[in-house]
Structures are given as structure tokens and as C-alpha cells.
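Q: C-alpha cells for this one, please.
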Amino acid sequence: MEMIWLPEGIRRQTEGERFREETIGASGFRVLIGEETVLKIGPQSGETERERRVLSWLEGRLPVPRLLAYETAEGRAYTLMTRLKGRMLCDAVYLDDPERLRRLLAQALEQLAAVDTAACPCEQRLDTVLEEARRRVERRQVDTAACEPGTFGPDGFRDPEALLVWLEANRPGEELCFTHGDLCLPNILAEGDRITGFIDCGGMGTADRWRDLALCLRSLQKNLAGDYGGPRRDGYAPDALLAALGLRMDTEKYRYYLLLDELF
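A: Here is the predicted structure, written as C-alpha cells:
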């Protein structure tokens, strides 16, 4: 791997660490994996600041990386964290066993929902998220080419502004709990039948539970369908995961939170 410029404090703490670059996921950050640490590099933003705050607050509350250092330089953020043990839930060992995978996803969702949000430093309710979405639309930061087929075009929305107007006009009620914000299979780690951690934590905060459920169900479907290059596997049953959580499908919220995610 080529040499990367690092702020002095980060460089000192990573001296001697041998990194490899993580290629799974689509966070938009450069993620370097060492034996003991993970270094995340990307544009300084509200997301990087949220991740810094929430990682510190969650220590002892949820299995997330421990924040070792956070520095900014020339508009970029450098977040150094401990490396968690475990395999991503998109690993073949879990995709080949859909029933086991559903149990682990239910465990992960229950752990998140059990976090007491009374003193949570990060707000992700619709008021906050829609305001951020509007800023992204106005700055033309929405990559429509990366969106789901059909979201935009003849059978979808005219453009991100039209989608935003629809989202603002069709807000569902909110059943609040602590959420991950991007609860896809690569962001959940496990060993055997136990969840060992959550990564990519910049979107964490108080929000409606369907913010996580919608993205989790979509990720489960796409991974089992082989959409990311692996073989197709049978066993996608969203109702089974919801039943394990004592829930039923809410098609309105499911669609709403998938569409909201298109603006991020």
C-alpha cells in the first residue's frame, strides 16, 4: 500500500502498524485495517463529528470500536479506532445459513433498541435528517447513478428535489429508539452465534426503528440474492426476521426509509 500522509498524532499512534485497505462496503471513506486498529479517512463532515461523539458515548453501552484519536487537517478527518473481532454478516459462513443469519440480525436489532437514549448525543429524527437531506439536494450532492433502479426516471421521481418534497409531505409517525443508521450486513460483526460489534457508526442516533429495519431487510435480500457478486442463496424471508422481533411488515415505513436513504 502506498504511503499516506497522516497528522502527527495519528502517525505516532500507528507507528509499526501494518494496514490493509478494506474494499467491502460503500461508505465513501478510506478504511485501513491493522492488526489492532482501524483508521478511517475521509472528508470532515457532520458524519465524522457524530461518529467521534457517539463512539465515546457508547463505550460500555454497545460493542463498538473504542475511539483512540480523532484529528482533522485540510478538510479531512482521521478517525483511529480499535479493531473489533468477528466476521461481517455478509461473510459466506453466515450467508450459507440464512436461519442463523436471521437470528444474528434479530440479536443485533435488539441490542441497538435496548440502548437508553436519554443522554444520546446524536439526534437522527426526521426533523434533523430531512434538514440534512435538503442541504445535500441544494448542494447537488446526491449521486442518482448510485440509487436503486426506478427511484428516478419515467416511473420514479423526476429528480432528488422531487423526492425530497415527497418525503417532507409524507412523513410517517416515529417510534423512537437507538438506531445504527446504516444497518447493512457488512456493518455488523459476529463470532459464532454472538454479535461482537457494530462498525461505520457515523449515522447512529435516536430515530424510528424502521430506519434500521428497512436497510437491514434490503441488505439481507441483496446479499442472499447474490447482488454483490456471490452466489444466489435461498432463504430470504423478511417476515421471519420481523416475527423474531415481535413485529409485522410496515410497508409504508419500509418504502419511506428506503427512499430517504437515496438522498445520502
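A few notes: The beta strands are 20-21, 30-33, 37-43, 67-73, 76-82, 87-88, 176-179, 188-191, 194-198, 205-208. The chain has nine helices and ten strands.
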